[in-house]
Amino acid sequence: MTCVTELPTTEHLLSGNRACAGCGIGIGLRAITKALDGRMVLVNPASCLTVLGGMYPLASLDIPWINVAFPSTAAAAAGVRAGLRAMGREGEMTVLAMAGDGGTADIGIQALSGAAERDDDFIYVCYDNEAYMNTGTQRSGSTPHGAKTTTTWTGKRENPKDVLAIMEAHRIGYVASTSAAFPTDVYDKMVTARDRRGLRYLHMNTPCPSGWSFDPKDSVRLGKLAVETGLVVLFEIADGVFRLTGRSAALAKSGKPRTPVAEYLASQGRFRGMSEADVAEVQAWIDERWGRYVARNAGD
Amino acid sequence: MTVHVMTGNDAAATAAKLARVQVVAAYPITPQSPVVENLSKWVEQGELPAEFVAVESEHSALTVCIGASTVGARAFTATSANGLAYMTEQVWWAAGARLPIVMCVANRAMAAPWNVLNDQQDSMSVRDAGWVQLYCRDNQEILDTTVQAFRIAERLNVPVMVCYDGFLLSHTMMPVDVPDAEVADAFLPPRTAPLQVVDVNNPRNVGPVTLADPRADADGTLQPGYMEFRAMHHGALLEALEVVPDVDRAWETATGRGWGGLVCEYLLDDAEIVLVAAGSLVTQLTLVAEALRAEGVRAGVLGIRCYRPFPVAALRERLAGRALALVFDKALSYGYQGPIAEDLKAALYAAPDAPAVYGAICGLGGRDVSPGQLAAATRAALGDLAAGVTDRAPVWINLAEGSMR
Description:
The structure holds 2 protein chains of 2 kinds.
Chain A: H1 24-35, E1 40-44, H2 48-53, E2 65-67, H3 73-86, E3 94-100, H4 101-106, H5 109-118, E4 123-128, H6 163-169, E5 174-179, H7 183-194, E6 200-205, H8 209-212, H9 219-229, E7 235-238, E8 241-244, H10 246-254, H11 261-266, H12 276-296
Parallel strand pairs in A: 1-2, 1-3, 3-4, 4-6, 5-6
Antiparallel strand pairs in A: 5-7, 7-8
Chain B: E1 2-6, H1 8-18, E2 23-26, H2 34-44, E3 51-54, H3 58-70, E4 75-79, H4 81-86, H5 88-96, E5 102-107, H6 121-124, E6 132-135, H7 139-156, E7 160-165, E8 174-178, H8 181-187, E9 205-206, E10 215-216, E11 222-223, H9 226-255, E12 263-266, E13 273-277, H10 280-294, E14 299-304, E15 306-308, H11 312-319, E16 324-329, H12 339-348, E17 356-361, H13 371-386, E18 395-396
Parallel strand pairs in B: 2-3, 2-4, 4-5, 5-7, 6-7, 13-14, 13-16, 16-17, 17-18
Antiparallel strand pairs in B: 1-8, 6-15, 10-11, 12-14
């Protein structure tokens, strides 16, 4: 595992960008662009990331970036890839599609599924801030049970869609779950993805102070806490082999109890007022999934 | 040059091959499907060195073309009816992003209810999206226009839609002269550098959020706002009024075949009554004009080849001094009138010596339109004209009695 002091020092995400204070996307994207050394083209639909990138004629990243329509991210990346290949330019850059959870789990899933079935040659990163944050915190298919949003005023009743399982079911070569609170985990997985071919899928948890209602200084702490509870699990599935990574691997190895999810839920305004029964339901959902992950874990 | 007997769909696919398209993306829909079946086969057999992306929807078909075209590749797709409607978001995107994509539309009726047969409601419904729209009369024109479309698109950095009537042309066999590859290559060189820069050594953010007003860049130079970009796009469409005829003339020089540029005409010079339409209906109307002339009616035909941009000056010039323009639309703006009639009336407003303009709706959902019915509709229009009617509601041709209640 790469140590934080070993990360490349070149910055591609420039200072003065338009991300909100404490936004997890910037932390994750910084690690991603370092892993690709800026030799990339970012394909990005309408999302928080669009805002972070800046408004014409100014830009906050020094990488090629193509804005595309909301449902179209994966198909646009496939087209960019096909175009580069047709022109003999495929060695110039990695094609990186990067969309939010709404753009991935909901409106973008059809194009993503098509690209996965064709095993198109690009990396797709879903940055998951667990709701439509750019439009003002409406619920998405990835919003967790109990979270209040501007379209679930009393808390969402359903559990989030398991996009990682959906992507694994497509039998693509590399599927990984990561968190912006662990930039080196993001970096290592992006390096692994970079050196493979075909469709590679990374799902990156990105804490959102405004949408989750917490103090921006706590973004990394909360992202880490989500991993401590098992609500977010760091793992990768390479050629069908499942392996827990980083802090999640250490948690599984230690055999010690995970932090109760109630502590995580209590730290954010979006879960305020959840009933004990709902909290218990979330805990049971986490425990069941954690058990399955640990049972599958091929790592040491 | 070799003469082949082929369908309109085969002519479209052959044109894409002659144009040496580099990326083809497509999704099946009747009656377009054979276009991409052909291209898929040629790519698999190594006859066409292109990337063929078999996408999961029409939305993605045009999206793949958008991605490929952004990095500089020559991209092509084809669709019909609900497929076109499904990709409508990307129809606007391709135009706004100024990408020279060429798309064939085998014109088909819009559901509901389901109907796979011909009318022109599909492409007419996206006339405002900022594409050049060309309509073809026969299979030869489909081939010739599709090759021309790439040159028009790449000259102006706007996408071009080549429209032809489903089944009437898409599935009807006709002799088609296929130019030699060298002729096509000389006419259409490889695409030059795109407007968009996608280069790790010169990183740009392509298509970011753009405010209404001009805004200074890092050097303090004022750059366009959203409205300036829209005006530039409009300017490119207006420039197409010159480029479409230029390209058609260049094609005529190369192959001996021209199609009239913006409009085509038949027996028009001394005509008092002008029959107006787009697509294969124009071919039919030549028979109607001949039949009416045999009855002593000085009838002629004016076909709309380029519907967007709308050739206002050419139409004003060719219609000045006539008594009547009778427009046959295979589409309808519901609650109003046929789109070509509507546009023609606007184009002729305040024009000197403008004729009366009547509209007729015909052929929706593949309803057969015979030259006899078209001639009868023209005679009835002449009666109205003689009675001093200057404007009237569109008539529906061959409609069951009592349907419009």
